[in-house]
Write a structure and sequence with these properties.
By secondary structure, this protein is an alpha/beta fold. Among the domains are: 171 residues, Alpha-Beta Barrel (TIM Barrel); 191 residues, Maltooligosyl trehalose synthase, domain 2, CATH 3.30.1590.10; 128 residues, no CATH class; 97 residues, Immunoglobulin-like (Sandwich), CATH 2.60.40. The strands form eight sheets. Strands 16-15-14-5-2-1-20-17 form an eight-stranded parallel beta sheet. Strands 21-22-23-28-25-26 form a six-stranded antiparallel beta sheet.
């Protein structure tokens, strides 16, 4: 959906109990002065208590009380509007948090199973592979196997007399008990009373006459819910009116919970087995879980937002906020998790347009962004009624523009010699995706195999395909997928793009598996791409059930296999290991970068441009510094090999193997160089830094799944790596290494700063809408979450914004980060002054004389008589720091004639056909010049 929107720049804020609506309100004047137009807030709907991110939403129709009230939100938005700013919210339509049973829908489902009014709400397979789970939900909530937990007293039956309900308590949380299964408990109570109250017997009879869970028509669900609530009210009143009932009940519960008696264990086990859920050891989830999750996170259950009633139920508050004028846009999380992304977005756009108040019914008045990770050569579907993505692809395009492919061989040699192993990125991706399908997401693949087997059984020509062969084919095709997912729609012919993706994946899978019968792959392809003359004919309901789940599985498997496994295994240059990136590709030509910009201006001029987000593995400044290692390949090779020798004595043998291994150690050294502070640390600061690096390496080890993992942590290995980090970074224990690291990091840091400034200028001037992640206006050397969610010192940023030093001083004192803040503020002011130029201007690459063409990225933004000239440096290690003035020698830049004014320095330049770079870059290593007269 290509259109202009009144959006200049977004600023991402992470809201949680430590940063509320009120605190965000206090920040508004600063954001106004910085020059942003929209605040882009993390989800602020009710989430699991204590949530630091909001993606574990428990109720879409309530605000998170830990963040603030509706009035707090209104006050914040009114303050935004007073300063000319607007609000975009991050929205989560794919799943809900279920760790907290404050999620009343999930609690009702656990109590009533298929008879719950929310049975269709969640994406549950009520007829799974395992017969014992028929009409049950597998709940992987136990720390040990079920029998061990039960027999140790870890499962206890309780009564909440204030509500008239029963629950199973498990280590600090509770699971509801289906009302019919309480009959044995109540009969046991009656048996112990000398005079049984008629009301108790009546309650037991009423429970016995409730419609069974298997009768799940709308009428029986309504009747069951109504009668159940009446029965509970009666039981609550009985406990109040006749205390002896409650007293006997407590005695009975004590008997049932006595884990020293076999009879009591049998009773409790029988009651638990009658629930519409099955508590299990958490590791069972990988193979047997029967509800769709967000990736492999058991505490996030997927919902069926493709169903009209679920869509309406989950979006009530969102639409209300639009109607009230509190929202001007929405960012949709994990769009690829939905069954029908295009249909969802069509409906969302229509409803938001209807909700916009006053004269804001023009679709261009509200922005919709999607979190969509595009694969190499993949384009965002043009038919989606949105404004673009959240910008992961731009972050990778910008990095690759600052990196030269010619540096790849040297960096590859250093890496492979260090780890003593040849590496193939594509092979690691393949192995990692298979690993995910064998471990954490095996249940999803097993279910797909079962669905495909049922479909094959429906016709004589395909019924001889075995379940194992079909499941293997699915696994191999998913492993070969070149993108996150396809977008096949029932009763619509497949698009050309989807056909190509499936053909490619099936062909590659077939080549990789010559021993697996070819016809199995052909059958799978015929199911995914249904031809009009399909033979054998397929049952469309069964086929679509498979296709829907298949498409919802490929994305999470790809994400877990690449982002959360491969990116921690393939460590040649970890700056490239970023969401939406492909580390196997080492840099692009500047021409390729310009091509992306021109295409974005044509197709998605309002798409976001992100360099740091809440999901990036490393901040933009960390990546910019690590990128510079490629320019110092010989020095880097010498340094890491020296460090390995210095630090060998600090390793610990774990099962005869030194920890960390070489690949982990190489990853660590890049991380240290990328995050090493720009000032000398005192003892307290060093302790905090060491802790941050240890926590990051623990995450990296567990994501890599080589020597340790989340599912099966290797405590000895983890401890050895933590000790290694503490020892090598101790000035007292390892002064030679700390000195060497400090010297090398200080050599790389200026190059990283130039890269970061180039990246910043590009983001703020190319086609698209720049997005700033909280705190990154100054240097920010954060790592993946939770490190990038630490508190931001906005006072420092606000004070810096109030009084900038002259540009020569900013450059001389670059370590304080003020030069980055200054650049952002000036360029955002420029965007405010010339909105048409940035919203509609063409992107025109410019020519630099041959002597410096590899060291410059330069282009025009042009709209009518307005022209903007942008010049940023790249590969500056051979130019010296800070790459200004005479280092550019006699290189010239071809520019349109006229007077150009540098909006960063105020300098003016009169051009006829070209200008010398030494003049344009006399004061700063980058320049942004405006020519309004034409």
């Amino acid at each position: 959906m290509s259109k202009q929107n009144p959006i200049r720049c977004t600023y991402r804020l992470q809201l949680h109990q430590g940063f509320t609506f009120q605190q965000a309100r206090e920040l508004v004047p600063y954001l106004k002065n910085l020059g942003v137009s929209h605040v882009y807030a993390s989800p602020f709907f009710r989430a699991t208590p204590g949530s630091q991110h909001g993606y574990d939403v428990c109720d879409h129709n309530e605000l998170n009380p830990e963040i603030g009230t509706h009035q707090d939100l209104r006050d914040w938005v009114e303050e935004l509007h007073r300063h000319g700013l607007k609000l975009i919210v991050d929205f989560v339509p794919n799943h809900m948090g279920i760790a907290d049973l404050g999620n009343f829908r999930w609690r009702d489902l656990l109590e009533n199973g298929p008879a719950s009014p929310y049975a269709r709400y969640f994406d549950i397979e009520w007829s799974p592979i395992k017969p014992a789970l028929q009409n049950k939900v597998l709940l992987p909530v136990l720390g040990e196997q079920y029998g061990v937990v039960l027999e140790s007293g870890g499962l206890q039956l309780h009564c909440n007399e204030d509500e008239g309900t029963f629950a199973i308590h498990i280590h600090g949380f509770e699971l509801p008990v289906a009302i019919r299964s309480t009959i044995p408990v109540l009969r046991h109570v009656a048996s112990k009373m000398t005079e049984v109250p008629d009301e108790l017997l009546s309650i037991i009879s009423a429970i016995d006459h409730l419609p069974p869970r298997t009768e799940a028509t709308p009428e029986t669900i309504e009747e069951r819910t109504r009668e159940k609530n009446i029965i509970r009210s009666r039981f609550k009143k009985l406990c109040i009116d006749q205390p002896e009932v409650l007293s006997v009940l407590n005695d009975v519960l004590a008997e049932w919970n006595d884990n020293t008696k076999e009879e009591s264990l049998d009773r409790l086990d029988q009651l638990i087995s009658e629930q519409p859920y099955r508590p299990s050891y958490w590791k069972v989830a990988a193979e047997e879980i029967n509800y769709r999750r967000f990736f492999d996170v058991n505490s996030l259950a997927a919902i069926r937002v493709d169903l009209p009633e679920v869509f309406e139920n989950t979006h009530q508050l969102l639409f209300q906020l639009f109607r009230e004028g509190l929202l001007d846009g929405v960012r949709i999380d994990h769009i690829d998790g939905l069954a029908l992304p295009a249909a969802y977005l069509d409906q969302l756009r229509q409803r938001i347009t209807e909700c916009m108040p006053g004269d804001a019914t023009d679709p261009a008045s509200a922005v919709i962004y999607v979190e969509k990770i595009l694969g190499p050569e993949e384009a965002l579907p043009q038919e989606w009624p949105i404004d673009g993505t959240t910008g992961y692809e731009f972050g990778n395009q910008g990095m690759n523009a600052l990196l030269h492919p010619d540096y790849a061989p040297a960096m590859t040699r250093t890496y492979e010699r260090f780890i003593d192993e040849r590496q193939s990125y594509k092979r690691i991706v393949y192995d990692s995706k298979l690993l995910i399908m064998q471990l954490s997401m095996a249940s999803e693949i097993n279910m797909l195999g079962t669905l495909l087997s049922r479909l094959a059984e429906s016709h004589r020509r395909s019924r001889d395909f075995t379940l194992n062969a079909l499941t293997a084919a699915i696994r191999e095709v998913v492993a070969a997928f070149p993108v996150y997912r396809t977008y096949l729609v029932r009763d619509e012919p497949p698009g050309e793009r989807d056909i190509k993706v499936i053909q490619f994946a099936v062909s590659l899978a077939r080549r990789r598996n010559p021993a697996l019968e070819r016809s199995v792959f052909e059958f799978l392809r015929s199911v995914l791409i249904l031809n009009p003359d399909q033979s054998p004919p397929l049952n469309e309901d069964m086929r679509w059930a498979f296709v829907r789940k298949f498409q919802q599985c490929t994305g999470p498997i790809t994400a877990k296999g690449i982002e959360d496994t491969t990116f921690y295994r393939y460590n040649r240059l970890i700056a490239l290991n970023e969401v939406g990136g492909e580390p196997g590709n080492f840099g692009d030509s500047v021409e390729t970068f310009h091509h992306h910009c021109i295409q974005r201006a044509k197709d998605w001029p309002s798409s976001l441009l992100a360099t740091s987000t809440h999901d990036t593995k490393r901040s933009e400044d960390v990546r910019a510094r690590i990128l510079a290692l490629s320019e110092l390949a010989p020095a880097w090779s010498k340094a890491v090999n020296s460090w390995r020798r210095l630090n060998q004595r600090h390793k610990t043998l774990v099962d005869g193997v030194p920890a960390p291994d070489a690949n982990e150690e190489y990853y660590l050294y890049q991380t240290l160089v990328g995050t090493w502070p720009l000032h000398e640390m005192n003892a307290d600061e060093l302790a905090v830094y060491i802790k941050r690096i240890q926590e990051h390496l623990m995450k990296a080890l567990h994501e890599a799944k080589v020597n340790s993992s989340w599912i099966d942590p290797n405590a000895d290995w983890d401890q050895a790596v933590e000790q290694f980090i503490e020892r090598i970074l101790s000035p007292k224990k390892n002064a030679r290494f700390v000195t060497s690291l400090n010297e090398f990091a200080n050599r790389v840091a200026p190059l990283g700063a130039i890269n970061s400034l180039s990246q910043t200028v590009i983001k703020l001037t190319v086609p698209g809408v720049p997005d700033i992640y909280q705190g990154t206006e100054l240097w920010d050397f954060s790592l993946v979450d939770p490190d990038n969610r630490r508190p931001v010192d906005f006072d420092v940023r606000s004070n810096g914004l109030a009084a900038f030093k002259p540009t020569p001083e900013l450059l001389d004192q670059w370590r304080d980060g003020q030069i980055k803040l200054f650049t952002i503020q000036r360029l955002l002011s420029l965007r405010a002054e010339h909105p048409d130029l940035f919203a509609n201007g063409d992107h025109v690459p410019l020519h630099v004389s041959d002597s410096m063409e590899n060291h410059i990225v330069t282009y025009l933004r042009q709209h009518g008589k307005q022209k903007l000239l942008v010049i940023v440096p790249r590969l500056t290690s051979t130019l010296g720091f800070p790459a200004i003035g005479s280092c550019w020698k006699d290189a010239t830049l071809d520019v349109p004639g006229g007077q150009w004014t540098n909006i960063l320095t105020g300098a003016t330049h009169q051009a006829e056909a070209s200008l010398p770079l030494s003049e344009l870059l006399a004061d700063l290593p980058f320049a942004v010049l405006i020519n309004v007269a034409g």
